[in-house]
Design a protein that fits this description.
The protein has about 240 residues and is an alpha+beta fold. It is built from three helices and nine strands.
C-alpha cells in the first residue's frame, strides 16, 4: 500500500510505499477523518499522528465520505456530491465509489499529519514549499499584510516571475487581478445603478398614480351613467302610470 502523506504546516507532500501488511494493519477498519498513531508504521513515524483524508482502491475508484462500507458500491450521484462532475444541468448518474472504511483492497491511502513526532522526516517535515500564488481577493490581501482600508492594496499584490521557454526572451512577472477592489470607477457605477433604480421607482409611482386617477375617473363616469339610466327608467315608469 502507498501512503500519501501531506504536511499542511509547510505545504509539502511525500509518498511512502509499504509492502509489509502488518505495518499498515493499524489503518484497517478506520474511517475517513479518523486519527491514527503512526508508531507501528515505522520507526521514522514514531510519535506522529495521522488523519485519514481519502484513498483509492486497486482499480482506481476513490473513497467517498459517508459510505460506511469497506467495499465498492454504485450510487446515484448528482450536483453537490463528491466523486461526481456535473456535465449538464440537473444531471444524475450512477457511479461506482469506494466506501470510507479502510481495507486491504486499497492501493493508495491519503494521510495528513496532525501531530509531529520526535524525528524529522526527510522531504516532508524538514522542507518548506512556498505558495505559488498569493491571495487574490482584496480583503484577503489586507488580512495577509495587516493593512487598513486606507492603504492601497495594489501595491501589495504578490507577483510571480515567469521564465519563458525561449531563452532569448527576458523573464517577466505576472500578478492576479484583484477581486472586490473598491475603486472610484466601481463607486461611480454603484451610484449610477442607485440613481437608475430611484428613477425607475419614481416613474413607477407616477404611472401608478396616473393609473389610479384614470381608474377613479372612469368609475365616476360609470356611476354617473348608471344614475342617469336609473333616473330615465324611474321617470319613464312614472309617466306610464300617470297616463293610465
Amino acid at each position: 500500500m502507498t501512503l500519501n502523506i501531506a504536511n499542511l504546516a509547510n505545504g509539502s507532500q511525500k509518498s511512502f510505499s509499504i509492502d509489509d501488511e502488518r505495518k499498515v494493519r493499524v489503518f484497517y477498519d478506520k474511517q475517513i477523518s479518523d486519527e491514527v498513531p503512526g508508531d507501528t508504521v515505522g520507526d521514522e513515524f514514531k510519535g506522529y499522528v495521522f488523519r485519514i483524508t481519502g484513498g483509492n482502491d486497486k482499480q482506481g475508484f476513490p473513497m467517498k465520505q459517508g459510505v460506511l462500507v469497506p467495499s465498492r458500491v454504485r450510487l446515484l450521484l448528482s450536483a453537490g456530491h463528491s466523486c461526481f462532475k456535473v456535465r449538464r444541468s440537473g444531471e444524475r448518474r450512477r457511479k461506482s465509489v469506494r466506501g470510507c472504511i479502510v481495507g486491504p483492497d486499497l492501493s493508495v491511502l491519503s494521510l495528513v499529519i496532525i501531530k509531529q513526532g520526535e524525528n524529522e522526516i526527510p522531504g516532508l517535515t524538514d522542507v518548506s514549499v512556498p505558495k505559488r500564488l498569493g491571495p487574490k481577493r482584496a480583503n484577503n490581501i489586507r488580512k495577509l499584510f495587516n493593512l487598513t482600508k486606507e492603504d492601497d492594496v495594489r501595491k501589495f499584490v504578490i507577483r510571480r516571475e515567469v521564465t519563458p521557454k525561449n531563452a532569448d526572451k527576458k523573464p517577466y512577472t505576472k500578478a492576479p487581478k484583484i477581486q472586490r477592489l473598491v475603486t472610484p470607477r466601481t463607486l461611480m457605477h454603484k451610484r449610477r445603478l442607485v440613481t437608475v433604480k430611484k428613477r425607475q421607482q419614481e416613474k413607477s409611482r407616477e404611472a401608478a398614480a396616473e393609473y389610479a386617477q384614470l381608474l377613479a375617473m372612469r368609475q365616476k363616469e360609470q356611476r354617473e351613467r348608471k344614475e342617469e339610466l336609473r333616473r330615465r327608467r324611474s321617470s319613464a315608469s312614472r309617466n306610464s302610470v300617470s297616463k293610465q
